[in-house]
């Protein structure tokens, strides 16, 4: 029996993970579920956003289903106590360095895309975002300049081993897909990006079957809306991947549709919608649970070795979206009704 850790988190996290759990339960697989608090919810209960019991569960589990973190009532806390530290801590503690963020337009959602229908229909891409380095984990702080000004700083750094392992993840993903890898950096300005580019080129020697290209991140942002059909797999750093994947989500209709898998070297994974806690709609039953449900499908595929079950869940979401839309897609379905529609289509 596989143990699934459910970490619902804050805001809409509990609502969307509840629907994803219902879908997993409906598959009648040999799964056990254990739930723990994380983020602002955990801070309010225990004084820490990632309490030892939650980290222990995450370590014991075969896979983790994560909701979202972020709680405005924690905004004034010191940085190490803020809800977001929980997800950063989990990624670092469990060495979840490879974040897979697929974006594909579901049939019938052309009108929800921010792009023209013929452009949106061409989207079928995967962003491979590095998750353990970059400005998120570099030295950071607040200091005073010699002239008395407050100055914030976040050190951007990557070593070659960090770049190599995410480059390998990108090439492997491209090999399993259409054989195209675009590495996104800012090598004309940043030292980290120059190293990134050099290492990606070194790794490419082992992947003759993958066509490698490079793109500056500013151009990549433009190309994502101009001609997204050109992309198969994008491999990029933590910050650039965070931004580009939110942009990609609007190209396919909503951030409520994009799942993600954060994997270690052995395939253990944390699965979460890319969206945050959306405190403005929390508790109202308005959130789109599709990204969480699709994250559960990624869990079935990547951590539990159940690709047929993953296919079933993805097909059920596609079928449900034909006649059901939550508010983010211009409809009036509740979170529960959308979950019911996916269950009915399973
Ligand atoms: N489910 C995604 C989530 O909760 N995001 C909130 C957040 O702070 N994310 C930071 C990040 O993705 O780097």
TrEMBL record:
Cofactor: Mg(2+); Mn(2+)
Enzyme Commission identifier(s): 1.1.1.85
A single Gene Ontology CC term: cytosol
Keyword Cell division tagged: no
Pfam families: Iso_dh
Enzyme class: oxidoreductase
Functional summary from the UniProt entry: Catalyzes the oxidation of 3-carboxy-2-hydroxy-4-methylpentanoate (3-isopropylmalate) to 3-carboxy-4-methyl-2-oxopentanoate. The product decarboxylates to 4-methyl-2 oxopentanoate.
Family, as annotated: Belongs to the isocitrate and isopropylmalate dehydrogenases family. LeuB type 1 subfamily.
Name of the featured protein: 3-isopropylmalate dehydrogenase
Organism encoding this protein: Sphingomonas jeddahensis
Gene this chain is encoded by: leuB
